[in-house]
Design goal:
Number of domains of chain B: 2
Order of helices and strands of chain B: HHHHEHEEH
Largest interface: A-B, 49 and 38 residues
Order of helices and strands of chain A: HHHH
Largest sheet of chain A: none
Number of helices of chain B: 6
Shape of chain A: elongated
CATH class of the largest domain in chain B: Alpha Beta
CATH architecture of the largest domain in chain B: 2-Layer Sandwich
Low-confidence stretches of chain A: none
Oligomer: heterodimer
Number of strands of chain B: 3
Helix content of chain B: 55-70%
Number of helices of chain A: 4
CATH topology of the largest domain in chain B: Alpha-Beta Plaits
Shape of chain B: globular
Structural class of chain A: mainly alpha
Radius of gyration of chain B: 20 Å
Number of domains of chain A: 1
Structural class of chain B: mainly alpha
């Protein structure tokens, strides 16, 4: 029986290793910055998730006590990953994209990153 | 009386969530951590109340469960799809694309959840919001057909979120 448990744990660890590797490889292979952003935000979710599932199984089946710490790591990952991605994407738009290269923003006319640049009366802090 | 309760517990869901998170952090279910978690769960929403004045209403609890399951399933599929694109597709054959998703959602919480979901699921990253928050800019890793991606986002996620939040 212990063999099956260990097999299961090893399986999840290998899966997570493969996805973590693919995510890192994507960073090298994909050429444009926006596409590069896809590799770490996704492939690593399952990469980390696999280790966490393996850890829960190990604590329940082999150490015989329930450990749910791992769910918190998942929760925090789901909260932080989209925000990091959004910040990097906004930086990219701010530095490298013109409003005319992006699709139509509908009734609002401009995307938020570009709309900010249009404001002329930015307070001057250099005087202080 | 009810208004007083609202003043003391501005976000009951947040109170509940913080307590659960604290008990999980302690990793030993005990009365000790439950009480301390509850204290934190009451103080933190009370102190941060000025920064989050609205109270999001969750209308449809079965739909929340359904939404979480759909998203978890999509994340697993997303990982395999993205891995396949990275490993087996030549970079020249890939068609990265921007798409604009017109939003029907209006509550900030619902739009945040939608944007986060889009980032976590197949080949899409939400990149920006339009100036007044009526459209979402999404970048696709490989989208030969942008219309189909947009329809899928609206059908799969936005429809469900609309039932949950609005």
């Amino acid at each position: 029986m212990a063999f099956i448990f260990e097999f299961l744990i090893a399986f999840f660890l290998v899966v997570s290793g493969i996805f973590g590797f693919v995510g890192s490889y994507g960073m090298i292979k994909l050429k444009d910055p926006m596409s590069r952003l896809h590799a770490p935000t996704k492939a690593t979710t399952l990469g980390v998730g696999g280790v966490l599932v393996a850890s829960i199984i190990h604590s329940v089946l082999i150490e015989n006590h329930l450990s749910l710490h791992e769910l918190l790591i998942t929760l925090f990952l789901f909260l932080t990953a989209p925000i990091t991605a959004l910040f990097i994407a906004k930086w990219h738009i701010h530095r490298h994209e013109k409003p005319e290269n992006l699709p139509d923003a509908g009734e609002d006319g401009l995307w938020a990153t570009h709309a900010v640049e249009q404001v002329e009366d930015v307070p001057d802090h250099t005087a202080n | 009386m009810i208004r007083l309760l609202h003043r003391i517990f501005p976000h009951p869901h947040l109170t509940f969530l913080l307590t659960v998170v604290w008990v999980l952090l302690a990793n030993e279910p005990s009365l000790n951590s439950l009480v301390f978690g509850l204290i934190l769960g009451i103080i933190i929403p009370f102190v941060t109340q000025p920064y989050w004045p609205d109270r999001p209403k969750l209308r449809n609890w079965p739909m929340v469960v359904e939404y979480i399951l759909v998203v978890l399933w999509d994340i697993v599929v997303a990982n395999v799809t993205v891995a396949r694109i990275i490993l087996f597709k030549r970079d020249a054959d890939r068609k990265p694309n921007w798409i604009s998703v017109p939003l029907e959602l209006r509550t900030p919480e619902a739009i945040t959840v939608l944007a986060g979901t889009i980032t976590m699921t197949p080949g899409t990253v939400s990149s920006d919001l339009s100036a007044q928050g009526h459209c979402l800019l999404v970048h696709c890793l490989d989208a030969p057909d942008p219309e189909a991606v947009r329809d899928q986002i609206k059908q799969r996620y936005e429809r469900r979120l609309k039932e949950i939040f609005e």
